[in-house]
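cron nightly-structures :: item 1 of 1
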Amino acid sequence: MDAFVPQAQSAHDLDAGAGLPAELTRLIGREAELAEVRTALGQGRLVTLMGAGGVGKTRLALSTARRTREYCPDGVYFVELSELRDPELLANAVAAAVQLPEQSERTTRTMLETLIGYFGRKQVLLVLDTCEHLVDACAVFVQSVLRYCPQVRVLTTSRQPLDAPGEHVLQVMPLPVIDPDEDALPGAEPSDAMLLFAERAAAVVRGFGLTDANRDLVARLCHRLDGIPLAIELAAVRLRALSLEQLLSRLDDRFRLLSGGSRGVLPRHQTLRTAIDWSHGLCSDQEQLLWIRLSVFAGEFELTAAEEVCSGPRLPAEEILECLIGLVDKAIVLRLDDEGDGSDARYRMLDTIREYGRERLAESGAELEYRTRHRDHCLALAEEFDSRWLTGDQVAWMRAAWRERASLRSALEFCCTEPGEAATGLRLASALWGLWLCQGRTDEGRYWLERLLTHCPGPHPARVTALRVAGHLSLMSGAHERGLELTQQSRDAADEGGGGRVDAAYVVFNQGLAHTLTGELDLALEHLGDARERLSGLGERGGEAWMLGTMCGSYLCAGEYDKTLATFEETQPILEPLEERWVSGWVGWIRGAALWGLGRHDESADVLRSALSMCMEIDHAQGIAFSIDTFGWIAAAEGRHKRAAPLLGAADRLWERFHDPRLGIPAMHQAHDAAVAASRTALGKRRFEELYATGAALPIQEAVDRAISDPRTASGKERSGGARGGWAALTVREREIAALVAEGLSNRRIAERLTISKRTVDSHVEHIRGKLGYASRTQIATLATSHLPLGS
């Protein structure tokens, strides 16, 4: 990569779209800059695009990243830092972008050291966007990565240089403009700024184009806006309501007002602010109010959230929709593309626009009020997420909470910095325990909890809950000693007058979980049995199911496979009615691994297919890794080593991302190592390593597809539905839905019949198809008909 020329395709190549967000608009007039950036990246390893806000640095970086993917066989990753306020989380943000879960405390490595180890000698382009508020942290981070990772290149965008050794700074200038008073327009090619305005205007006014009649006006407008893309786009949107002549007239008044009659000496950041001030002045009083109040949202938001948080004096909730439409029309707020799942439309502000609004909100004296309201909104969302976490609504709420992560982090930061808010912050962070766990962000969850705990030292119920949640997160990340330490602190805090029976039950659960992970079966069962009685008595069905699943895991880790299956049968009556996916995915893998241990390989494979389907539905990466691993153990045990080797490689690749393989469970390591040794011996070292590397290079979806497909039976009994465990592998609810499919009912009709959501039915049908390897509803109907009593 020394000359930044194409490299041979690597088996470790990532998906072509990995790590890069969709660009909002087409890049115009930047071909020279793109060539310059690529040349600079070929000559050096750190390039910074420097320029004013709104000048187009991010779009230029994205376009560069997209055009250089072929030269970076190990990946191109885009890390947006505008919403990150704490420099201590910089490495975590990069880890999330490269899908590298956080570092376990079982080692002394920092996240930066983990990233350095992960990048190693990989050929990667890392794009850090919006570094100016973290410039020192970014400089230290980049310097460390470049020092130890010789083939990594870094492209940053910032309003100031990082001043790091070897940095190549490229100034991103506004688009070229034509001064109509000096340059001849007739017959001249339009400037890039004019082309940008024309394209944006055509999106607003059908049929708009550059003509001899309007070229002078467009050239003057772009010249007065100094060629800054954001300012040009704001102006183009106003063509919905104003003519070009009116735009020029109003722009002239606004510039004169803000510049005191001197337009030529303003620095470019002030020019951008002038454009935003101008846009603010064109808004109605209510639109201005909504603008500044919306600035408390970081990232995306929905209309209902805006109505809840931003309504107030002079802006009733019922008038917010109309104001929001006005802000979208003026390009103050962006409407994001629909996800196609029937969810409500979502919106966001460009960061520069949001920062402008935040300044205005502070000037109004209402910042604390609306940040508090935003905090209350986030707390309500988190607590609703917590209440839905172990239910059939789990997947939908997981996705909803993840979309809100920027605002949730903003609310947590508010609780950390605003006096008197720490206890509320503890409630917020604790309620998100399922989010931290499922997304593999246990380290971030503990960060917020432990930071807030320092601000809430006295006895308080929220402190007890936070301590035991932090303990649980530590245990599930492999930090067993820290997990037990926090669990004991939670018990001590409860003794001082805080907490309740639920916290006490989960403290005992934590102790049982710790002994499970360390292989101490008797102690694990003692504590888990106690926890079960407590949770059952409290009606905590989700917690009881998670506890019973952990008990299954205790027997599995001890090699007690028959007892694992017996406990699974005891778990199902509690777990099935919940219709959730996270615990079910864990328990499904545990059952499949127990069947493998008993040599019942066909049954194990059926169960693992189901477990993988559930884990994929909720992005449960640890469950996915365990399931693929076990498919590899089955293949090795059956002597099918050409199938085993790539599956073992794929599993190791997933565990490599976690840096906490197989939760540190000795029995699981032994099973994996035995399968690797058997396949290496059977295939020979060279052939094994080739197949292993092929598996390690697979994207997750392809690895899953390879695991659940079996050439030996692809057209045989499993595909026909006659496999042992085919109909039996379905849950009671799945059989009920399959029977209704056989009646010819649509998913919506099934939802109405069973009084559940259509989304839940959709999930069940897809789960059935994935479990049985079916491609159509007809196959489901055929299977159901063959197993239903006559006349039913």
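cron nightly-structures :: done
The chain has 38 helices and eight strands.
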